[in-house]
Amino acid sequence: MVDLLADVLPRILRRTFICSFAAGVGLVAVAPSSVLGKDTGNVIRIGYQKSGAFLLLKNDGALEKKFAALGFKVGWNEFPSGLPLLEALNAGSVDVGHSGDAPLIFAQVSGIPFKYIGTTSPAEASAGIVVGKDSPIKTLQELKGKRLAFAKGSSSHYLVAKALAEAGLTFEDIRPVYLQPAEARAAFQSGSIDAWAIWDPFFAAAEIDANARVLRSGQGLSPHREYYFARREFLEAHPEVVAPLLAILREIGEKAIKDPDGTASFLATKLGISVAVMEKSEGRKQRYYAEPLDNAAISDQQAVADTFFHLGLINKPLNIADAVFRPGP
């Protein structure tokens, strides 16, 4: 389902009924306490996923205290991934959210009214290409003619593009297999694919539970950042929320990094993943920091956009800087 939506996202995101569509097919999971619907005044409606700093912040309760002092209430809305979160933002039901790089590329090319407000540090080691423990494949060059699985239009798609270029190969040299993580893991374990490009915590799970060997990590290939964004209309009305929001995200991130075992245990429970997998994932995760986008972050996201345009995944070139929030004096 997500693969299909990645393919047609530039078209469907323009439709006014997109949020109801997402809810109708079960893509949007909303907590009972969520504040959805039209803008309700001084309420900041946050879309979050079952990973990352927003989930930790929701559990901590610090955001409510911080924003109560600023005259805001906080609404929490849970989503399974960045794509349906952006659909809800397009419908005006969410004010702030977070996502990896790829969904935001599709959202920008489709004219979704959002601005990047922050980014995490790169986490290059949190993604990679794996093969079976006993696979004869030892180098990227040996992927030629092999079946390599990854989610189309995802951060792994970008990782594969960079890895192939490093090896002097192109997509025409391999046999791409477009699969989402759960499907890819089943195919990997059955031996119906030769290699798999994937991100954490699925990456860590492949190493620990699926006898995978890392052929090439994302180090030096893909930044694997996470981005924070906000609805453009909300930012125009409340630009003052950006700085304190990023500040409290940094604070919760620092707590997570200082207590990796506790963070891993909490996330393992929420995600239904073993603590061992989460500990491995958290040990190489640098995506908790939250800072305004600098030139390096803009350049990283621009590289993803340029690659997707070159591959024909988006139908026009993008200028990422056009969608970056610039605070006033």
Task: Give me a quick take on this structure.
This protein is of the alpha/beta class and 329 residues long. The chain has 14 helices and ten strands.
Q: Which tags fit this structure?
A:
single chain, 329 residues, alpha/beta, D-Maltodextrin-Binding Protein, domain 2, 2 domains, 3-stranded antiparallel sheet, 14 helices, 10 strands, 43% helix
Explain what you see.
- The protein is an alpha/beta fold.
- It has two domains: 2-123 and 224-272 and 286-323, D-Maltodextrin-Binding Protein, domain 2 (3-Layer(aba) Sandwich), CATH 3.40.190; 126-217, Periplasmic binding protein-like II (D-Maltodextrin-Binding Protein, domain 2).
- It has helices at 2-12, 18-24, 53-60, 62-68, 82-90, 101-109, 155-166, 181-190, 202-209, 232-237, 242-258, 260-271, 275-283, 295-310, and strands spanning 43-48, 73-78, 96-100, 114-119, 127-132, 147-150, 175-178, 195-199, 212-217, 226-231.
- It has a five-stranded mixed sheet, sandwiched between helices.
CATH topology of the largest domain: the name is: D-Maltodextrin-Binding Protein, domain 2
* Fraction in beta strands: 15-25%
Order of helices and strands: HHEHHEHEHEEEHEHEHEEHHHHH
State the low-pLDDT regions, or none.
1-39
Q: What is the alpha-carbon Rg in Å?
A: 19 Å
Specify the overall morphology.
Answer: globular
In total, how many beta strands? 10
- Give the terminus-to-terminus CA distance: 44 Å
Counting helices, strands and paired strands, the structural category is: alpha/beta
- CATH class of the largest domain equals Alpha Beta
